[in-house]
Structure formats: structure tokens, C-alpha cells
Amino acid sequence: MSARNLLLLSSSRLYGHGYLEHARSQLEDLFKSKNVKTVLFVPFALRDYDKYTATVRNALEPWGYAVEGLHTKADPSKALSEAQAIFVGGGNTFVLLRTLYELQLIEPIRKLVLNQGIPYIGSSAGTNVATRSIHTTNDMPVVYPPSFNALALVPFNINPHYLEPDANTHHKGETRDERIEEFVAYHELPVLGLREGTSVRVVGNHAQLLGKLPAKLFKGNGSTEEFAPESDLSFLLQID
């Protein structure tokens, strides 16, 4: 898996910034690493594909990058094989994964990213499907994919938009931590809680936390650990 070239964003939007603006330097670093000029956008996590693609195009074109929507291609698998970079956007993770299965794109994307090194950008749901499974999404299962198994571009799970419990709240329902800990208790697999504005950059067998906030790792043994920005997370790529 040494060909991996990934940018896994917690979100496309961050308070006080325009769409994708907070991640511009990260995106451009990835694009420049492979001389990317045109990005193939996968809009399947939202209902209006044209509108969603236009949103991404309006963000990236002023930076000098063209954007094409995968939904406009007669042969999606062929379009992916010819892509300079693949960007899978956020929305509902269950809808996104079901559509990838329906179009038989799971294995083509895996092979292109893991074997040929095509750059992959995921945001929110697009980050969820890049991981081992979608068990740790925040979304509701409005549709049912044939499996929760995802692209497995990395061998661990991520919880995008991670938000720690508010110690001052009067809310007595389950916290995000409790829901993630429940997954860990059943599966004994780690989950990385990515706070807003953070991301994981993966190049080959090296992974690094980017952004201004720490990430919280829920370990397979039930313990947790905070990792500061710029931390080396490469050990997560060694999980079986």
C-alpha cells in the first residue's frame, strides 16, 4: 500500500471560512504532488449531484483547478481510471456507500488509490468510506448499503466532526464518546476522532494529523489518547 496519497478531511466547512478554504494549503500540497489540474468529484452523498458539483467547482476553480462530476460520465469506472485526482464529498455516508456498491466502484477505487497512487480526497462521508467501515459515521441509515465494509484505504476507523462531551450540559443522552466506545467494545478496533478543521494526510505508509486542533484516539483496548497537531499517526496504518 505504499502508493497511497490521501487527504482525509473531517469537514469541508469550518466556521469563519469559505467552502474548503480552511484546507486550501493541504489540498494544493496534494494536487501539486501529482501535478493535478482536474479533479473528479464524487457527489453521491447528496441528492442534487449537479448543485453539489457546482459548489466544489466554485471553490476550486478560482485556485486554478477544474472540477468534473463523476455522475456526468457514461462509464464511471473508466472515468475513475482516467482521473488525475478523486474527491469524494460529504453528506449521508449510507447513501454514498450504497451508491458506490450499486455502481460497482468499490474495487476500482481501491485499486486505483492503493496500487496506482491516484490522489484521494475525502470529506466527512467521503472520509468515512475511505476507512475500514462506516460503523462510526454520525449519519442516520436512511438507506441500507449491502455491507458496512468500505474502501479500506486505511485500516482503521474515523469519526469526522468529533465533538467531546460538554461538561456543563444538562443533557443526559448518550455522548459521542459513549457511542464510539460502544463500537470499540464490540469490535476492538481503534477509532480516530477528527475535530472540525482537522485532517489526516497519508503518503505511502506515513500518516500525519493536520490542522490546529488535537485528535482523540479511541484505542481497541478501551483507553483513549489525545494527539497534538502535526503528530505522526503512521502506527495506525500497521493495524491488521
TrEMBL record:
GO term, biological process aspect, one: proteolysis
Keywords (A to Z) from UniProt: Cytoplasm, Dipeptidase, Hydrolase, Protease, Serine protease
EC number: 3.4.13.21
Cited InterPro entries: Class_I_gatase-like, Peptidase_S51
NCBIfam families: PRK05282.1
Cellular localisation: Cytoplasm
GO molecular function: dipeptidase activity; serine-type peptidase activity
Reactions catalysed, as given in the entry: Dipeptidase E catalyzes the hydrolysis of dipeptides Asp-|-Xaa. It does not act on peptides with N-terminal Glu, Asn or Gln, nor does it cleave isoaspartyl peptides
Function, as annotated: Hydrolyzes dipeptides containing N-terminal aspartate residues.
Major localisation: cytoplasm
One GO cellular component, as annotated: cytoplasm
One protein family per Pfam: Peptidase_S51
Protein name: dipeptidase E
Entry similarity comment: Belongs to the peptidase S51 family.
